[in-house]
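Design a sequence for this backbone.
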């Protein structure tokens, strides 16, 4: 079976996905940066802008890699370590960070929509903000005031970047961003 990505990219993700790096917040930063440059190009109009956020209460470091066109965001990906995925609180934190980032940058957009991805290792959840309607999908799950409920269900991270379907979905998203940006 053919690999969904060129061998150097696959090797980069496979190396980062080793058990000894399961809690390493930076293990996937390099592979995702390489992937974004592979898909958006190095010599074209796009820049990959990394940001790192440190949460004072947990000391977690989260990488946000933003693809920009003329200093305006057109796509971003939030990267968290693989081991964090099994914890409801880490998925909630990831979902909250995604929603906060959309709130912070929505007024700087030059495109009609802003797609984004939350990644736990190579497991992906796709988001999209639409400017005209001010809508963000997937919809937020409100916390129940009495019962503990899962506000960031694990099944939202429903594909793996290293599998054919996940790679195809990611490529399709990037292609839609490139097409959208041609009108800018």
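Sequence:
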């Amino acid at each position: 079976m053919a690999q969904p990505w060129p061998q150097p990219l696959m090797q980069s993700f496979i190396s980062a996905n080793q058990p000894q790096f399961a809690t390493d917040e930076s293990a996937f930063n390099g592979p995702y940066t390489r992937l974004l440059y592979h898909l958006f190009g190095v010599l074209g109009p796009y820049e990959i802008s990394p940001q790192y956020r440190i949460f004072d209460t947990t000391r977690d470091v989260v990488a946000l890699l933003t693809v920009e066109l003329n200093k305006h965001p057109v796509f971003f990906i939030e990267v968290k370590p693989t081991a964090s995925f099994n914890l409801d609180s880490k998925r909630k934190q990831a979902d909250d960070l995604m929603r906060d980032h959309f709130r912070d940058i929505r007024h700087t957009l030059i495109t009609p929509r802003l797609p984004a991805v939350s990644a736990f290792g190579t497991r992906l959840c796709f988001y999209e903000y639409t400017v005209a309607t001010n809508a963000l999908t997937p919809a937020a799950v409100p916390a129940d005031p009495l019962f503990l409920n899962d506000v960031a269900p694990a099944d939202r991270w429903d594909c793996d970047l290293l599998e054919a379907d996940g790679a195809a979905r990611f490529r399709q998203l990037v292609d839609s961003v490139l097409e959208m940006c041609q009108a800018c």
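Strands lie at 46-54, 61-69, 72-80, 113-120, 123-130, 135-137, 159-160.
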